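During the no-cost extension, the postdoctoral fellow (Dr. R.K.) reprocessed legacy sequence entries with the updated structure-token encoder. One reprocessed record is reproduced below for audit purposes.
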Amino acid sequence: MNLIVNKTEKLTGEIEIPGSKSHTIRAVVIASLAEGKSKIINPLFSDDTKAAINGCRALGALIKEENNNLIIEGFNGKPREPLKKLDMLNSGTSINMLVSVTALGNFKVILDGDDSLRKRPVQPLLDALENLGVSAKSIDNNGCPPIEIQGPIKGGETDVHCKSSQYLSSLLISCPLINNETRIHAKNICEIPYINMTLKWLDEFKIEYENKNLEYFKILGNQKYDSFEKSIPADWSSAAFPICAAAITNSDVLIKGPDINDAQGDKKVIDYLKKMGADIEINENGIRIIGKELNGAEIDLNETPDLLPVMAVVACFAKDETRLVNVAHARIKETDRIKVMHDELKKLGADIGELEDGLIISHKPLKGALLNGHSDHRVVMALSLAGLIAEGKTIIDTAESVSVTYPDYFESMKALGANLEVE
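Re-encoded structure tokens follow.
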């Protein structure tokens, strides 16, 4: 599917942001691990969350959709052996979370995904589980899916190198359910807000653990998750795109749904934009953005790597130089997002340089071009914003990938007046 974007002078109106992917997947996994029937209100229904739902179903959870909610009857910490390998589609979060869930069982299981997922490293999590008594290996011996897991987790002590926060979150969610104590030394932590999000979930279920500066965790065994009813907050990662779109056009837009007090790290998009001079107001109605000229800035994206694509586009609009730094782990997402954003924005005429851990971008007018979305939802959405400020027509391929996290993205942007269409 191609997305065609024409320069758009002004966005107006208001839109509602869908539920958080990160919260939805944690909710699905914990409800599946729980005893009894849980209700998840306002979950995100997307390709990524579908991967988590289907994986948990295969492991024994009874899951049904009811009035836009999810009703999940869990398997009480005792997953059943799936009939076939688990297909995690394009969802890195789902495969990382379910690796440890499958390791709770005394059976062998294979987890796999699409071509993109097969390039995403998971070896640090496999190494951590090996130290806890699990046979965990990359079938192709390249540290990436497909993965073969043979549990159960026995507990003990392990290190985990956290180039992705999901490795640690995976262990923190599953290890309370084993018989023995688990001690985890976390190394090279990135994406701290996502770890804090996981810990907040554990706290809600009164899971007992010791935490020393996010570097050492002791998790008591023989614990359990109770069934629950919980509403999923709106997704800040998705909200970042219309928020930034309004900031770089002559706009007056209201974004409804995101909670500035939620644990999601990508709410920092507000701080980053304000640092660049954006006019943003947060009130009981939502987030109001009025477009104006922005200034360049140095922005440390270590905690928020998913914001790199969209902030790279904002930097093209801002006067003076912008440096996006300390985000080398953006290279291990669905694509090497540092290289991809450099290469694609260059096609539009951007003044952009690639760093080992980020990008340097200076203002220069963009001109429409034919772009490759690389089947990466955040790259496609970011490039769609570049199309709004580029002269002429911009065409982006693999636009269908937005369904991974924001299936209604194009409709939302058109509702604000964005001049775009799909073909």
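The chain has a mean pLDDT of 97. The CA atoms of residues 93 and 166 lie 7 Å apart. The remaining legacy entries will be reprocessed before the final report is submitted.
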